[in-house]
Structure formats: structure tokens, C-alpha cells
Amino acid sequence: MIRAFVLYMLGPLGRQALEFYLEHSLWINGLVVVYGALLALAHLNLRRLERRAVERLLGTAPPGPRAADSAPAAVPWEEIIASASFFPFVAGPTGLVPRRCRPDVLERLIPASRLKKLMEEARGQEGRGQQG
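The structure assignment produced for this chain is given below.
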């Protein structure tokens, strides 16, 4: 009864789409899972590059409370990509299309304001770790 109602609601085009999906569901679901895995790897790669950039900038920044203000100006993305990238693509937190891992792409996905915020958070965690 419910199946007949659903088929009626789908109409002729919807029924054809349903039949196509049922016949090829293994391939369609496989592609969706592979795409999701690639997108997850690209997102993890971006987070890894972000952390490495913060570590690198904190290592080269002069100590002091104002160091996080000026450090994000020159990020050595080529070196960071060579040392930390484990996957050739990156994807932003809401991005549905992975992009090639290149310096210009990373500059767009990780703006200086985000790096500054991450550096301040890292400095705060270092301070709390030394106190406790």
C-alpha cells in the first residue's frame, strides 16, 4: 500500500529515476562513499597544514604578547606543503569541491586573520600548560 502510494507520488519520471538507482545503487553509493572519503582527507590535510603553519610562525616569531599580531604576514606555504601535506588536495570546512594543494589556494582558505586567531589560541594553551 505504501509502496503504491510512493510510486504514485513519484510520477513517471520519478519512477524511472528510482528504477535506475535500484539497478545501479552499488556504483552510485560507492561513488558517494569514495567522494566523502576524499573530501574528509582533503579537510584533514587542510587542518594539518594549518597547524604546521601556526607551529612554523610561532617558531619564527619573536617572543612576547605582540608576536601574534605581525607573524602571519609571510607564510612559507611551499615549505609547509612539502613537509606536512599528505594528500594532494585541500578543502575548506564548508567546501564541497577539493582544491589542489597550492600556496594561492591555502592563502584563500586560511586567511591571515584565521592564522592570527590560531596563533593566539596556541600561545594561550602554551601559557596554561606551563602554569599547570
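Interim note for the steering committee: Residues 12-131 form one domain. The chain has one domain: 12-131.
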